[in-house]
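Q: Protein A?
A:
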Amino acid sequence: MPESPEVQALVEELDARLTGRALSEVDVIEFRVVKTRARPLERLVGERVTGVSRHGKLVDLGFGQAGHLVVSLGRHGWARWAQADASGEPGDRAGADSSTGPGADARQEAAASVDPPAPTLATLVFDDGAALELTDAGQWVSLGCWVVDDPAEVPAVAKLGADPAGDGFDRAAFDGALAGRRKQVKAVLQEQESFAGIGNAYSDEILHTARVSPVEHASALGTDALDRLFDATVGVIGGAIAARRGVPIADLKATKVAAMRAHGRAGEPCPVCGDAIADFSFASTTAQYCPTCQTCGERLPLKGE
């Protein structure tokens, strides 16, 4: 699932590529991605992009007075950039396998190991012939698009809590999201109404860095644990955004995977203590933690064990 560091890198690249460009064509291959049937994507054809920004895990393409195209990447959504060829038609796809330069072969191999090429569900073509392809690799459609006057009209945007990468995020916002919550702290970190942009992977990384058990209730955390968790939340998300900045769209998923210290590392040695990173069942998925660093040696339950 794309999370705020990768979405921020995507947004910054799209902002640089698209601002000032006019949308010349829209091709919606899967009608279920369009959530505002009365305002289809085609309504924005002819309008110029005035900027691209991020709301949590969602992408916002601004078209000035014409409105906004808000894209939720959902669980398996992503984007490919297809540059125009000499004829002005979309050519190489920069979000698939068109990386060039030193290390390109290694990057392509890493990207292929993360996900096979995903089907395109909608394409936005711009006045220079380049195209933004919106993809979804899931078995069910999680990608969603809204054409709205105000991004807050999108329910997923309206409910967002404080963003740990935002200018207004401070200790008061952090404490307010956790205070009195009789809920597992990992669940609170992933709850978009509490912390915008964090998902399964970065919540694992934050908790590992903070040396906090993912199943501890937020209300039970002491002052020292809260201090560590606040520093880790800001540091992990801010550091990941800085590290992803400038990484090509094609390489962002593989770069994220390679940077993980705990998430997805089950069976590998913890980089802090050397104990084996372990899996545990969380909601409908699997997450990772270090028993020595986070749970005082206690093994958390894994479905089927």
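Q: Protein B?
A:
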Amino acid sequence: MNPIQLINRTFILAAAPFIGIFCFLMVSHLSVELPDLQSYVKTEFSIQNELLKSEQKLELAKTAAVQTRTTIERFYQLYAQSTADVAAMAQSADTVSNRPAAIFDSRISTKLGAQPAKQTISANLDMKLFYLNEPNYKAYALKVDVKSDKALKMVLGKDKVGSSETTLEAARRYGAVAGINAGGFADDRSGKRYPLSTTMLNGKYVYGFEPTFEDLAFIGMNTDRKLIGGRFSRQEDLDKLKPSFGATFVPVLLQNGKKQAIPAQWQNSPARAPRTVIGNFKNDQLLFLVTDGYDERGGSGATLAELQDKLLQLGVKDAYNLDGGGSSSLIYEGQVINRPSDGKLRPLPTHFLFFK
């Protein structure tokens, strides 16, 4: 084979695959799909529309947020103003509500003829001490506004039935700001000193209820912090008044602003004496009067009739005589205010104590 033939065969063999592929394509009629450019255009427009809508929504949200913030700021301003207005109204209400008490205190001070010598004001009580110089006696007036159940309580001497201690000792032991002697007592042969007749502590009878006899009267405070007292023949009658604590002595001086008859024995034996009396005003504030006397022979101190007149002059509604003579005791801030007729304080079985 010459070289030319060899070249031709080589060319034919090299071109054969391409010729076969061409023939196959011609016979098979294959088609090639080109991308749909229109759908791409539509998709692009759709994305742009969504972006535009999102931007519009963002603008609306921004506008709503600004409006909400403005509304909140306005509401806060109104709230702050309302709070200030309510506080101002509350202060005005307190001022108005306290005005009657201030007027009352002013009137009592005028009637007592002086400004208080001592004063204690706390969440529990408002207490004022006045010195009185009457024509026939010298006295001390303790006006007490009891604001809580913690302000006033009665205690037993050394916290035991049959024991006794001075009002000063009881006040110191309890940390009381002031103290007053309470009910009467009876001594037994062994020297023990017992509270007289019906006595109550913390709503319980110390040794049972005893019907009132002779001219005795129960004097105490109830669970509503109000003064109660009088003669009781049945326990249920006293229980109706919800007594919290109290003691017994004699006699009743005033009831509902009217003088009560003073038993003959107490008019003359002794006629004058150191006295301790308790009363209340129409607004339930308490008044304690303690008078000085040199002894118990009847030549010094006050008569019960004089004290009735003084109590009525001061506007007291109900009043009761507590134990007197050498038992009369008034303690304020650790000091003995009155002048005990025994020359020293007498140990007693019951005391009224006041707390800040």
